[in-house]
Amino acid sequence: MSVQEYLEKHLLSRKIEEAVNAAVRAKAPDPVLFISTHMRRAAPAVITSVRARQILDSRGEPAVEVALHTNKAVHRASAAAADAPEGTAADATRDAEKRKLLARAVADAVQVINDKVSEALVGMDPQQQAQIDQAIMDLDKAHHKDGIGMNAMLAVSIAACKAGSAEKEVPLYKHIADLVGKSATTLPVPAITVINGGTHAGNRLPIQEIMILPVGAKNFEEAMQMGSETYHHLKDIISEKYGPDSYNIGEDGGFAPNISSISEGLDLVIVAIDRAGYNGRIKLAIDVAATDFCIGKKYDLEFKFAEKSGQGFKTADDMIEIYSQLCSEYPLVSIEQPFDKDDWEHSKKFTTLELCQVVGDDLLMSDPDRIKRAVNEYTCNALVLKANQVGTVMEALEVVKQAKDAHWGVMVSHRSGDTDDSFIADLAVGAAAGQIKAGAPCRGECLTKYNQLLRIEEELGSDGVYAGGNWRTAASSS
Ligand code: PGA
């Protein structure tokens, strides 16, 4: 083909002329840069391939990373493959091969992406998130998504979402808000982990997390400052009381002193808040993760004791009494998963008391059917959204809508074995969740989310609104 034929085939002369004219009209100070940007925009992005690889998450366990290539750029995303409680649908793909990486490898998921998913998405416009997610779901033959695996689905879906925002030349949170059809201006209140227990730490504390909510901050930046200062005072307090070998941290970055009761942990945090000077401006939350210590119909508060006293077994009604007492003694405003994942009856009984926000984690599994039932029966009044239990970005936005329509609180959450992908920060703003839970103000995989929110707040400037005192209602009012 001659040069002339090539120019004619691709209409290059006309396109270059248009770009030059546009540069002149705009009086572009750097015409070369202007013309190259103009030409780039003239070529729409299409997905050219999707490549996956196995990386390691914050626990040192395998996770899926995806590189979604378009004709213009490469967009990376990763998704944790934290497992769901036994017997539930929201599972991730781990390899059938059990000898490698303690049976945690995700090479099968990587292969599915490189083969099936890539082939299905090639040629698609990355701005069409709904179509992309539908194509991923269509590949998934079985109802419970075990054809592909949540980890594989979500990593691809997030990478496409990042590619879509790049093509639109808007920030990721804005692109997500566009997918929902809303504006994106609400910065969430962070539920910052300060003490770890349960299965996330080797101490005797039965519950998984104690968190602080800086609802009295004027903005997200101040919320993180309050969280960080309180966290560091807590470290000193724990060291003074239990010795310097007591402030090791758990899987979400919270300290893990060898305390054994919930009130002992809350007392430590109250002293830290006081020492930091934030009395009244920081509220408390706990994630009980009660499924982990429910034995039959009883809850074993001594499930991590080497020797049990026999006094640790509590009925669900005893637990209701314990929680009610805690709500009256402490500024405790949110309790996550207070009962076993299938104990709908007591969760409802406790929620109906209206003592605090009751967050459904294992109870809901971010699953639309379980959420529907919980809304109808008023089994809880808030959703913790773990996107890798849902599968794709559009499905995640759907369950957020379900929760908002029910006037629930919405807490976008990380996973305890997480990657350094900060997507959930943009998701929390784009979906106007009002709350985000991303661990402690320490550990890289936690900070990547909080730091992204600091950037978003700076970018939004005076348009940004910190959810603050509206942390529970921000979701339903926007
Ligand atoms: P998980 O816990 O990822 O271990 O389920 C996360 C959380 O609930 O904070």
From TrEMBL:
Q: Does the keyword RNA-binding apply?
A: no
Q: What class of enzyme is it?
A: lyase
Q: Which InterPro entries match?
A: Enolase, Enolase_C, Enolase_N
Among the record's GO biological process terms, what is one? glycolytic process
A Pfam entry, by short name: Enolase_C
Provide this UniProt record's keywords sorted from A to Z.
Glycolysis, Lyase, Magnesium
UniProt lists the family membership as follows: Belongs to the enolase family.
The protein here is known as phosphopyruvate hydratase
